[in-house]
Amino acid sequence: MLTAHERAEGGALDSKSDRRATFDVAAIRADFPALDQEVHGKPLVYLDSAASAQKPRAVIAAMDSLYLHDYANVHRGVHELSQRATRRYEGARDRVRDFIGAGDSREIVFVRGTTEAVNLVAQSFVRPRLQPGDEILITGLEHHSNIVPWQLVAEATGAKLVVVAIDEHGAVSADEFAAKITERTRFASFAHISNSLGTVLPIEAMIAHAKKAGVSVMIDGAQAVPHRHVDVRALDVDFYAFSSHKMYGPSGIGALYGKASHLEAMPPYQGGGEMITKVSFEETVYNDIPHKFEAGTPNIGGAIGLGAAIDYLNGIDFDQLAAHEESLLAAATTQLVDLGGITVVGTAPEKAAVVGFVIDGVHPHDVGTILDREGVAVRAGHHCAQPVMDHFKVPATVRASFGCYNTMDDVVRLVAAVEVCREVFR
């Protein structure tokens, strides 16, 4: 029998919010309590969603209800609380499946986030298949989490990391990617959307080129799933990973999609409880997928929060969201450039709602500090993408990133805060 909390959660999954009828940003903002505060005496403008998005009340309530009423360890208990927690935990897995268009919940592995997902695939799928001289293909846009795991695997096996260069706008060419594929290419891993520049990669064409050459592909979708519809079966991608905290859910949880045939063939990444069916001192029999990759007590509350975040996003029309975020990006880009003395870093023809910039003669960290005093939260640094910064010959950028709750007034506040910064350093 379902509890009231489970019935409410199920209703959230089945219902479509009124937000779908029209993109009402004021109503959306009201769902995020953290936005209703002042910082240094100024109303908060939160422009750091690419690092971590704020959380709606629905996500907070779903996690609260678990800990208030339904918490117990999952899968292992016959008592009622364990059964409730298990239903909610596995229900969150089903939500992830549907959200990204996977065909089977067994293809959804809960992980700590995109970083762990990349490491899992690197160690369990790619490393056993590599020989000295084999090649792993990435792009020059990647987050460190999609560079370092492949360097570790290459160093351990004698394989080689091959990088597809980005152009002066921060874009990647699908043709350039295809030209880098050789008979020694064994795997390709690249972002759907760049976290540092907002560049949208031509992943459909890149996947097609890789498939034609018999190369398996992983996509880092951390920056994509909060902003656009993703269908892993339509993409025909082998692996796709994302993090909850980028998409209005809790931190410390994420999901890896992997084709069932791949996951079945992969050895476990970690050993312990939960990922086994039988253990003796002579041998261990591993659990079925996806559980053989989920060693130990999982992040139960995190998974349920992720499921609630998916429910929330399902209440937003992604076409309307994209149009709203594109208008914010265009306005912010134009108005910042019009101030003069500002260079936008990353001007690819297709971008998500991220604008990175530098002010002549002012270090980005100083800009970020002054903007904070004006109540505007941005990210200043290399954004875990130092090769991108090296490409543009800058030590860092100021990055303003937009989410579903941002408004044109936020753009106005950003530009005004930048003007204050310019006056300080004039």
Notable traits:
globular, 4-stranded antiparallel beta sheet, alpha/beta, Aspartate Aminotransferase, domain 2, 426 residues, 7-stranded mixed beta sheet, Aspartate Aminotransferase, domain 1
Count the domains: 2
Q: Which value, in Å, is the CA radius of gyration?
A: 22 Å
Tally of DSSP β-strands:
17
- Count of helix runs: 15
User: What is the spatial order of strands in the main beta sheet?
Assistant: 4-10-9-8-7-5-6
CATH architecture field of the largest domain: 3-Layer(aba) Sandwich
The gist of it:
The chain is of the alpha/beta class and 426 residues long.
Q: How does this model look, in words?
A:
With 426 residues, the protein is an alpha/beta fold. It has helices at 4-14, 25-30, 57-70, 80-100, 114-126, 148-157, 174-180, 203-212, 232-235, 260-265, 300-314, 318-339, 364-373, 386-391, 408-424, and strands spanning 38-39, 42-43, 45-46, 108-111, 135-139, 160-164, 185-191, 216-220, 239-243, 254-258, 276-279, 284-286, 342-345, 354-359, 376-377, 379-381, 397-401. It has a seven-stranded mixed sheet, sandwiched between helices. A four-stranded antiparallel sheet has the order 13-14-17-16, with helices on one face. The chain has a two-stranded antiparallel sheet with strand order 1-2. A hairpin with a 4-residue loop joins strand 11 and strand 12 (284-286). The radius of gyration is 22 Å and the shape is globular.
